[in-house]
Specification:
CATH topology: Deoxyhypusine Synthase
Mean pLDDT: 91
Shape: globular
CATH architecture: 3-Layer(aba) Sandwich
Largest sheet: 6 strands, parallel
Length: about 375
């Protein structure tokens, strides 16, 4: 149920509205009357500076993104599901605020603990790790995960899901995660806690840009020992994600951290104009961009670059008002971002892109194959059957 925001308005003396001849005046921030989160963002953070103001801009941008009916991607790096961020993501999917996801495999693996009540608990970041190892407890900063009760038990779940996955024929990571989600829905006592289960229910495709880099893939590799290999096709993932972007009226992304998931989403634009040479009146560049990160550009690790650099690659459109980077830990900023739109925006009808993937890929490739400029280049280097 949508909560009502406070109707109390700030006096003109302390208003953060723009004035003629200059930017917004910065006055002492007024906390009374802004107890609700939406009011806190719009009337306190937005009237401030530094990353408090960036966070307000990100919240307001996410709200505009939703209202524009953009196709919204969420990219997830870092250890987000171990600290419970699957909960806010599930709520966004239920409201139709996330249409597809690109995640590290580790986040999806750790998502599988909770529907089975496998232990994952708050711990101490200053603990003695030699003692934890002796007690068979793995540590992710201040999160404890049990070896036998959690990790091995989750491995067994993944092995059970393999029976329903076609062997000896390539599948996409979106296919893989959809199948795992449906199996877990039947097996788990608490399927509602799983990001993968909810994504399958709402037909939200989930991709892993580095499919070999997680315990999910480590378990799938067992199929090769039993002469029943499960083959993941990352090139088909590229085509699917690109087709989703191409078919959208507008595109936007919320990025938690950076890394491979970020670049995998951002590369869909160069894939269209640089590689596929898409001839269909394509203007190029994503419309909306939000990143929550603790990295900084001068070390070369801002994972696909700043929004400004991304424009030089044709990854983003030039409207700077639609690009926001919040230099803050996602464990702080992401729940605020989610709570803002969950209270501010009306639910959207789910786009259910999972069921549309193959048709969109076929349409994209058919158009590109009819482009004589593309065919001329491709045939020069690739021998056809």
């Amino acid at each position: 149920m949508k909560k009502k925001t406070s109707k109390k308005k700030m006096s003109s003396k302390h208003s953060c509205r723009s004035r003629l001849g200059g930017g917004r005046p910065i006055e002492p921030l007024q906390l009374p009357g802004n107890e609700l989160l939406v009011d806190m963002v719009d009337n306190v953070f937005a009237c401030s500076g530094f990353n408090g103001r960036r966070l307000a801009e990100a919240c307001q941008l996410f709200s505009r993104m939703i209202d524009s009916d953009a196709t919204i991607a969420l990219t997830v790096a870092g250890a987000m599901t171990p600290i419970g961020m699957s909960g806010p993501i599930i709520e966004l999917m239920k409201r139709g605020f996330v249409d597809f996801i690109i995640s590290t495999g580790a986040n999806l693996y750790h998502d599988l603990h909770r529907p089975f009540d496998f232990p994952m608990e708050q711990g101490n970041f200053g603990a003695n790790d030699d003692e934890l190892a002796q007690k068979k407890i793995a540590r992710i900063y201040d999160v404890y995960i049990h070896d036998d009760k959690t990790l091995t038990s989750t491995d067994n779940v993944i092995l059970q899901t393999m029976n329903g996955i076609p062997a000896n024929e390539p599948i996409t990571t979106s296919d893989l995660h959809y199948r795992i989600g449906n199996v877990v829905k039947k097996l788990a006592p608490h399927p509602e806690k799983s990001l993968l289960v909810n994504a399958a229910e709402y037909d939200v495709p989930i991709y892993t840009s580095s499919p070999g880099d997680s315990s999910i893939a480590m378990n799938l590799a067992i199929g090769h020992a039993l002469d029943r290999p499960i083959l993941i096709d990352p090139c088909q993932d590229i085509l699917e994600s690109t087709a989703l972007v191409r078919a959208a009226k507008k595109n936007g992304v919320v990025e938690l951290g950076g890394g491979s998931p970020k670049n995998f989403y951002m590369q869909t634009q160069p894939m269209l104009w640089q590689i596929l040479r898409d001839p269909s009146n394509y203007t190029g560049g994503h419309d909306f961009f939000i990143q929550l990160t603790t990295d900084s550009p001068q070390w070369g690790g801002l994972s696909g670059a700043t929004p400004s650099e991304a424009k030089s690659w044709g990854k983003l459109k030039p409207e700077d008002i639609n690009h926001v980077v919040v230099y803050s830990c996602s464990s702080i900023s992401f729940p605020i971002l989610c709570q803002y739109v969950l209270n501010k925006n009306k639910a959207r009808k789910p786009k259910r892109l999972f069921k549309q993937r193959k048709e969109l890929v076929e349409t994209m490739l058919d158009v590109c194959k009819k482009n004589p400029d593309s065919l001329k280049v491709w045939k020069k280097y690739l021998k056809q059957k």
